[in-house]
Amino acid sequence: MVVGCGRFDGEFGVGIKRLEVESTHTGFRLSTVTGDQQYIKASTKYFAVALFGGGGAVYVGRHDRPGRFVPGHTPTLHGHAGAILDFEWNPFDDTMLATASEDTTIKLWSIPEDWEPIAANGQSKKGTDIEESLVDLVGHAKKVNLMRFHPTAANVLASSSSDYTVKLWDIETSQELSTFEEMQDLCQDIVWDYKGDSYATACKDKSVRFIDARSAKVEKMIKMAHDGVKGVKVCYLGQSGKVLTTGHSRATGREVKIWDLKSLDKPLHVEKIDTAAGALMPMYDADTDVIYLCGKGDGNIRTCEFEDKAPYFHKLNDGFRSTVPLKGVCMVPKRGLDIMQCETVRLLKVTNEQGVQPLSFTVPRKSDAFQPDIYPNTASNVPAHSAQEWWGGSSKGPKTMSLNPRDKSTNGAGKAPKKFQSVATLSSDVKKLETRIRYLEGKLDAAGISYDKK
């Protein structure tokens, strides 16, 4: 691994820090007993973690309201009949959360705008639990393990299950779009490419399959991504035509490989990391090509820069160093960062004893002005096309927006997403309308006014 020869010459990572203790979220016992999942996901406003115990409960916290969760007092989200195995925020609606469960179903939820489980003083605030889902997706024969929202099309969701299938859903119509059935073993990871025309799956059989999303057919395959028996993770490296995989070698050493999608016979580059046992979860910032390697059980987080030519990897300083083991991790969307403080990435680190810790990665700059070199236009919260347009063959990259606060009113971001309504809510509204119609008809009858009663 070459040190300090990338675009930023080691500048990234200089200002990495754990935010103050007052910024941590504590008090919950998390459900982190199975698989190599992230165990936490974030939108620009909220984060979600699955709680230990029955009923499939999820705690949804606000980034700006750290504090202590109190079981039985702090409001939660629940409604599944089994444990929740994965969850995912809609990239075009910061208030919409999808949950996948052992009960074989997927549920979509809407977080109220006034959701406030923790008060401004950091204390638990009594409130009403969220128990009514917007949409239920039923189709998998066994527990649903993983989900990923489409990166450019509105309301398209991919899910993988222990029934060895991957299903694509149009969540607005609750319809199944396609089913991929050619996996031979359990899916360990699923990721979309830059435009969302294809997705990749990493399976327990050590193969990585690249699948045409609309036809549900394998386009390409890495038959043996890594020799070891540990889990494999996959990451598309933006528009470069390259993919990154993490896994273990036969001698159980952790490693990272870079592959060219045009020729998958052998990797372009293999980077040996260490001999630790925990799975490596790559967090990739497509705007800066910086990769954050987060290992299960590790205290440290390694930072590297990807460059689309040999040697491909450039180490950026020492990354984040800590003695507190990492249990899970996620990246907060770029739109949710403190831009004027030169915060380039914020990771949420799940720990065993110290709750959820925000880790702020900054690039120190002397100027107080907006820094365009570290903040190119980024993916916005506006979809490039609808689910129907995408399914019909539309192929587009993400709509982008400027992160310069000066441009917020003109860059097209921040538009209110289309709001879903649950079947129960719609049924209640229909009953109210029927009652109102009967009342008005009675008034017309009493006044002797004729009308069409069909």
Task: Kindly report the average pLDDT value.
Answer: 89
- Spatial order of the strands forming the largest sheet: 1-27-26-25-24
| Straight-line distance between termini | 76 Å
Discrete helix count = 2
Radius of gyration over C-alpha positions, nearest whole angstrom: 23 Å
Report the major sheet: 5 strands, mixed
Low-confidence stretches: 1-6
Helix content: under 10%
Would you count the extended β strands for me?
32
Which class best fits the helix and strand makeup? mainly beta
Strand content: 35-45%
CA-based shape: globular
Describe it for me?
This protein is mainly beta and 454 residues long. It is 6% helix and 35% strand. It has two helices and 32 strands. Strands 1-27-26-25-24 form a five-stranded mixed sheet, with no helix packed on it. A four-stranded antiparallel sheet has the order 2-30-29-28, with no helix packed on it. It has a four-stranded antiparallel sheet with strand order 8-9-10-11, with no helix packed on it.
Overview in brief:
The protein contains 2 helices and 32 strands. The chain is mainly beta.
Topology summary:
Blueprint: E1 2-3, E2 17-18, E3 25-26, E4 41-42, E5 46-50, E6 58-62, E7 67-68, E8 84-90, E9 93-101, E10 105-110, E11 135-138, E12 144-149, E13 156-161, E14 166-170, E15 175-180, E16 187-192, E17 198-203, E18 208-212, E19 217-222, E20 233-236, E21 242-248, E22 254-260, E23 269-274, E24 280-285, E25 290-295, E26 301-306, E27 313-315, E28 328-331, E29 343-350, E30 356-362, E31 378-379, H1 387-391, E32 400-401, H2 423-446
